[in-house]
Specification:
Blueprint: H1 5-8, H2 13-18, H3 31-53
Length: 54
C-alpha cells in the first residue's frame, strides 16, 4: 500500500489489516501515528478472533 491514505483516513487501517495488507508507505511525519494505528488495529483483530473461538 502506497500513499498517505493511512494518515488521511486512519479508520481504514482496520480494513487494510483485515484484508492482509502487509506494507504501508507513509511520509516520515506520519510514521509514528500510522504505527500506533496499525498496532491498535492488529490488537482489535486478535481480540475479535479470540472471541469467535470461545
Amino acid at each position: 500500500m502506497c500513499g498517505q491514505i493511512a494518515v488521511q483516513y486512519p479508520d481504514l487501517i482496520d480494513d487494510l489489516i483485515r484484508w492482509g495488507i502487509t506494507a504501508i508507505s507513509v511520509e516520515s511525519e506520519g510514521v509514528e501515528q500510522t504505527y500506533q494505528a496499525i498496532a491498535r488495529a492488529e490488537q482489535r483483530l486478535l481480540l475479535e478472533l479470540a472471541r469467535r473461538r470461545n
